[in-house]
Specification:
With 335 residues, this protein is of the alpha+beta class. The protein is built from eight helices and 14 strands. This is YcaO domain-containing protein.
């Protein structure tokens, strides 16, 4: 049985104001790896088609499984350089979860799965890696600009978030463009001055990045709406206030984007041009392909201070002259 308890672990939310049915699914599964590690995950997806939403949920689950499979492997795995087509070899355990010698701390950041073209899966994985590192630059370097929603956009998005449940009474949106010719977008949702959800996205197309971040914020917020284990439930009133104040500081920063040209081809800057591609699942799993990308210059994990301690200060921090130990900046709590 794929889920331990299907009825308790798969939930369907339907949004009534759309012409098509929009379903948000989430499930909790666990896998035993090498008879030593048990890896529990929360998978989630959002889609107008129920079958596609379940497929996305399964795809996300398989990403976690493929990444965890090599946790103790001494077998060599080959990685392909995205820019130069050079090949490097590392031990399997170096591309799995945890703190590693080659790439530092590793989580699911930069992982993608699917049955479509490999180029599309690779781009999806790279976009996620860039997204999390743009989040780092926003949070610790104040390198982002606030996106002011028009009255029409604000009304539409408030309706989007609050039609099924009243999720938020304040939306803050930021965007940046530091690592490539793509756009990073970051959506923060507050209710009664408390952070209730957030969404991040990266895309070469401005509006696609914006709406993908909106979708992710909705997805994660509704999943943890009535739970005690939601990611932001542990924040104290003071910490919620610190997050709001920090976003105000980012909003007042002098960061501005002058070039809004869109491109069909990703172009990386010197601080982000060492991306390596790994085909994780090989012949072990029959459902599509799972690809993860890694970087020595950037972080391969969420930008929390806990993760920074596990892999040290990487080149991206030196390039942008960022002090991650600045006590005036709260720890990044965004997932």
């Amino acid at each position: 049985m794929f889920f331990r308890d299907y009825k308790n672990s798969v939930t369907f939310f339907r949004r009534k104001f759309e012409l098509g049915e929009v379903c948000t699914h989430y499930g909790l599964q666990s896998f035993i790896v090498k008879s030593k590690y048990e890896l529990p995950w929360t998978g989630s997806s959002i889609c107008k088609n129920k079958n596609m939403a379940v497929r996305k949920l399964l795809s996300e689950s398989l990403e976690r499984l493929a990444l965890g499979y090599n946790m103790e492997s001494e077998k060599e795995i080959k990685l392909l350089s995205f820019n130069s087509n050079n090949i490097i070899s590392v031990k399997g355990k170096e591309v799995s979860y945890g703190s590693k010698y080659v790439f530092g701390s590793i989580d699911t950041t930069g992982t993608a799965s699917g049955v479509f073209k490999s180029d599309d899966i690779i781009n999806k994985a790279i976009f996620e890696l860039l997204e999390k590192n743009e989040l780092l630059l926003l949070w610790y370097g104040l390198l982002a600009e606030e996106y002011k929603l028009s009255d029409e956009e604000h009304e539409d998005y408030m309706k989007y978030f609050n039609d099924l449940y009243v999720l938020t009474d304040e939306i803050r949106v930021f965007f940046n463009r530091n690592l490539s010719n793509g756009f990073g977008f970051f959506v923060f949702l507050f209710k009664d001055k408390k952070l209730v959800g957030a969404g991040c996205a990266f895309n070469l197309v401005f509006k696609k990045a914006l709406f993908s971040a909106i979708q992710e914020a909705y997805n994660l917020t509704i999943i943890y709406r009535d739970t005690s284990f939601g990611h932001y439930k542990h924040l104290t009133d003071e910490e919620h206030k610190e997050v709001l104040n920090h976003l105000d500081r980012i909003s007042l920063s002098k960061y501005k984007i002058d070039n809004f040209n869109e491109s069909k081809t990703l172009e990386l800057k010197n601080c982000s041009d060492d991306i390596y591609i790994c085909f994780l699942n090989r012949c072990k799993f029959s459902y599509g392909k799972t690809i993860k990308v890694y970087s020595k210059k950037m972080y391969n994990c969420l930008p929390s201070r806990y993760n920074f301690k596990r892999c040290g200060e990487k080149e991206i921090l030196k390039y942008f002259k960022i002090d991650i130990h600045n006590n005036e900046i709260p720890d990044c709590c965004i997932i």
